Amino acid sequence: MFQRISGLRFDNLNLLENALTHSSYAHESHPVQVSDNERLEFLGDSVLSLSVSEYLYCTYNMSEGEYTRIRSFVVSEDSLAEVAKRLTVDNYILIGRGEELSGGREKKAILADCMEAVFGAYFLDRGYDEAKRFILSLLIPSIERMKDDPMRKDYKTTLQEYVQKRFKTIPHYTMTGSEGPEHDQEFSFTVSFQKQVFGPCTGHSKKDAEQNAAKLALERLGLL
Length: 224
Hints:
By secondary structure, this protein is mainly alpha-helical. It has helices at 2-6, 13-19, 23-26, 38-59, 64-74, 77-86, 97-101, 108-126, 128-148, 155-167, 206-220, and strands at 172-179, 186-193, 196-203.
């Protein structure tokens, strides 16, 4: 059923089953050992990034920063979870009882990781060209939206998605000071992760100062 909905055609169905098996299911007691999808997720992440990067390079004449910004959006957890829901991946994931009871089928991280595992499995089963075709059929609309609406994502969201994906943590914002009269205060914030600190940056509200710190971090990372 999943193959029909997704338009995929696997020769080796064991790869597809592996891609749909969350670690919580594999770690539970079963009569036979079950492999989870984490290795396929690792592979699929690379196939996904290469497919999107190649498409952007061959289709648009942009700066490296623009390529990176658009790719960061379309391969983000939110984007992939949305694709997974569209393909009803949540109906087919094998997850453990505890994860099931905690709403695991609705968790964006699980859905996005599973989607990457499917990409990795299809790459192994049918090769790069077919995997790329499938990936782009799902993501080109998002690429077009992002290209036409460059302010679609705010800086804090973009930074958080990048840091979560790359380092498996989240950025931390710290207010370092404020000055000026109460009706016209200026706030200073830094943002930090992985022992790196960016800022301080200022703004006339705490939210603006945080956005400016996130923007600075993205610039320093070459993502803007």
